[in-house]
Design a protein that fits this description.
single chain, mainly beta, 46% strand
């Protein structure tokens, strides 16, 4: 919950701060009870993506019936907004304060844009059946690569520079192929519920 939420906050700020989290793979802090997470990677498309599926026990803090969105709070106080597809009828029975067990997925994809592409930040609705899941996209230009120190400096949509330390070993191996002037795009799709049920008492 912590990692993806931090990425989302960085993306929503339309800066490059989220690059540090997306590239470093910052660990999530433990919750009580701890959620179970499954991470899957898809490299078949033009933009390799990482999807994080979480099962957690949370409290409902807000409900938007018309948009079919829930805001939930974990036991450590971290809040997440989750889109709920129309086929999950349990959503219609929920009240603020309910404790629920929920499974939800959120994803981040990374790709390369042609040299000379101007860094941008956009927000729209992702193609999730029955749910208006928000999709945020940010692109940033590579300014400098220090493969020995695993550092990359980016210039974001607002012209700000950000140096990121890449901690993921798989991404570190790709750094020698990254060149100044290249533009990376990061696309985050917000959490979408897969199942909801009352929390076990």
């Amino acid at each position: 919950m912590k990692t993806m939420n931090a990425i989302k906050r960085g993306l929503a700020g339309c800066g490059v701060g989220m690059l540090a989290l997306a590239l470093a793979g910052a660990p999530a802090r433990a919750e009580v009870p701890p959620p179970s997470k499954t991470v899957t990677t898809d490299t078949s498309g033009s933009m390799p993506s990482r999807t994080e599926t979480t099962h957690a026990t949370v409290a409902v803090t807000a409900i938007d019936k018309s948009a079919r969105k829930l805001t939930v709070k974990s036991s450590d106080g971290d809040k997440t907004e989750i889109s709920v597809p129309a086929d999950l009828k349990e959503f219609d029975k929920l009240k603020v304060g309910d404790k629920i067990d929920i499974d939800y997925s959120e994803s981040i994809a990374m790709g390369m844009l042609p040299k000379g592409t101007k860094p941008t930040a956009t927000e729209g609705v992702g193609a999730v059946p029955g749910a208006a899941a928000r999709e945020i996209s940010v692109s940033a230009e590579v300014v400098k690569v220090d493969a020995e120190k695993n550092k990359v400096t980016f210039k974001g949509p607002k012209g700000k520079l950000k140096t990121v330390t890449v901690e993921d070993p798989e991404l570190q191996a790709r750094l020698p192929n990254l060149k100044p002037g290249q533009v990376l795009v990061f696309q985050y799709t917000e959490a979408v519920a897969a199942s909801i049920q009352p929390a076990a008492k």
